[in-house]
Amino acid sequence: MSIEVGSKLQGKVTGITNFGAFVELPEGSTGLVHISEVADNYVKDINEHLKVGDEVEVKVINVEKDGKIGLSIKKAKERPESESRPPRPQRPRHGRTNDNRPQRTETFESKMARFLKDSEDRLSSLKRNTESKRGGRGARRG
User: Fold this and answer.
1) Are 58 and 15 in contact (CB under 8 A)?
2) Is residue 113 classed as helix, strand or coil in its secondary structure?
């Protein structure tokens, strides 16, 4: 049985660190359950939830190219529909911003071009207002 993302496996806790627990999987491979993947609530001390030698059911959440396996205990638990979190309600988007202008999606290039144009306009306006008619840097005499 190969280890694939999304599969649920039985494993044995072989080591505990302050950031998670190492779990030995079938076929002798080892994966890490990060402390954030141990329980649904906040886990301050992983030793309150797991100890070396515990048999746990884990779900494979990622397998990296270098062979590291990311596991989750909380995602392996079957939760009834009523217990799972309801999806967050999304605010309706009507294609308009708060000031009733039509919403437009801009590319990075168009935003940058607009920024440069605005910036050059401001700089030229600033220079025009600070230099005197005769040139130079104003009417400083010393």
Assistant:
1) no
2) helix
